[in-house]
Amino acid sequence: VLVLSRKNGESLRIGSDVLVRVLVSSRGHVRLGIEAPPDKLVLREELYERIVDANREAASAPVAVDVDRQEERG
Amino acid sequence: MQDGWIEMTHARAGEVRVREDAVIEFQGLPGFPDARRFALVHEEKDDVFQWLVCLDDAELAFVVTDPLLFFPEYHPTLPAPQLRALGAGGREEVVLLAIGNLGGETPRLNLAAPLIVHLETRRAAQIVLDDPRFSIAQPLPAPTYRGPGPDHQAGGPDPEGEVADRRAGENAEAQIESKPQT
After folding, report:
1. What are the φ/ψ torsions at residue B24 (nearest 5 degrees)?
2. In sequence order, what DSSP letters do the residues of chain A get, joined into one string?
3. Residues of chain A positioned with their CB less than 8 A from the CB of B126
4. What is the DSSP letter of B105?
5. Do A70 and B143 touch (CB under 8 A)?
6. Are the Cβ atoms of B12 and A63 closer than 8 angstroms?
7. Of A16, A30, A43, B15, which residue is least crowded by CB atoms under 10 Å?
8. Rounded to an integer, what distance in angstroms lies between the CA atom of residue B132 and that of residue B109?
9. ipTM of predicted complex
10. What is residue B92's three-state secondary structure?
11. Residues B84-114 pLDDT 10s
């Protein structure tokens, strides 16, 4: 893992098209401003992981929903 | 194999035959970064669910549907930069689809991360709405439907989807407030 120190207002660049700026940081809380092309997905990691999990689950879930059984139960 | 057609035997969707000009291009999806070429296939013309089959991976396919069939109030704001990234000038140029998970006790749709497909360029993406109104696993209102093939059986849905629509409207109100943001 690459570790960089940045002060408020300073930024870093990832490749030529992604810019991450530290807007405010205090007491363990950091606000970041991110400039990236629209085809780059920028998300909180927790949310990204949930989408990954949902996609993987959907890609392996069985598909035959038994209509009769559903109706019986309902 | 005929010119202009792609044929494959797919582990989930069975025999697949699609025209080359119907191929939809993704730049990967979360969890599947290498999945690029997909096609929509269905068994019957009025199937509620379709297969979104990956043409690069004979085991990867998603069940997708028009979310409005189940949740008529679902009108998320689609981020303009992401529309532009597909080459779309506006929302009306894209089709919105939701990935379904029909396994388990409760069939559900991912309304938090829908798919947008630009009809003209055939480019597509999974977008993430990051809006607490839209669930990543929104249960489908009953009655529910059989998925698409290979073990598809005809005669499931009423063709107009009226029953589902009405019930979806009742159930969905708490979760999805109707007005599109402007």
Report:
1. -110, 130
2. -------TT-EEEETTTEEEEEEEEETTEEEEEEE--TTS----HHHHHHHHHHHHHHHHS-----HHHHHHH-
3. 51, 55
4. S
5. yes
6. yes
7. A16
8. 15
9. 0.76
10. helix
11. 999 999 999 999 999 999 987 889 999 999 9
